[in-house]
Structures are given as structure tokens and as C-alpha cells.
Amino acid sequence: MIAQTVLWIYIVLLIAGGVAGIVKGKSKATLAAAVAFAVGLSLCALRVLPYGWTSWMLLALLVVFAVQLGRTRKFMPAGLMLILTALALALPHLPFR
């Protein structure tokens, strides 16, 4: 239940980041990627797609944010999203769920 709630919060933050990317940096690619991953994660959260796909999508996002952080060397937004993605990926495997 906690992992499901965290996943929905992560999806909202992902969309917000995509919107901020297009407003601040005029990056349509950022919005497109955010929406694509948010739709995929939403389908997993709604159990339309197998829930195991969530881990693969989050791993892909982890790589994307790590590369972006390495390229820009700025914590915001890539560093923050890298941390949030790692937490969303690890949360289902923690003992307190």
C-alpha cells in the first residue's frame, strides 16, 4: 500500500518536472519523456501492465537522471529525481511496507 502511494506521488512529480521543463527550458523532449514514463507507470499502478515492469521503467529513469546529473553537474532537477527514483525503486523491497 505504501509503495503504491509513493508510486502515484512519483508519477505526479514526474509530470510536474516535464511541465517545468517545457515552461522553463522550452524542452518538448522533456515533457514527452515525462508523459511517456508517467503513462507507463500509471498503467503498472492500475495493474493494466504487469507490476514488474515498474522496476524496469524506474531503472531506465535512474539511468536517464544519472546521465543528466553527470552532464549538467546541477542537483536540480536531475539529482533530486535521481534520489526520488532510487527511493521509489527500493521502497517495495524494504521491510516496513
What does this structure look like?
With 97 residues, the protein is mainly α. It has one domain. It is built from 4 helices and no strands. It is globular and about 35 Å long. The model has no long low-confidence stretch (mean pLDDT 88).
Average pLDDT over all residues:
88
Low-confidence spans:
none
Q: Label the overall shape.
A: globular
Largest sheet: none
Rg (CA only): 13 Å
How many beta-strand segments? 0
Distance N to C terminus: 7 Å
Order of helices and strands: HHHH
- In helices, the fraction of residues equals over 70%
Percentage of β-strand residues: under 5%
Which structural class fits the helix and strand makeup?
Answer: mainly alpha
Number of helices: 4
How many domains? The number is 1
Oligomer: single chain
List the helices and strands and how they pair.
Layout: H1 2-25, H2 28-45, H3 53-72, H4 75-90
Helix pairs in contact: 1-2, 1-4, 2-3, 3-4
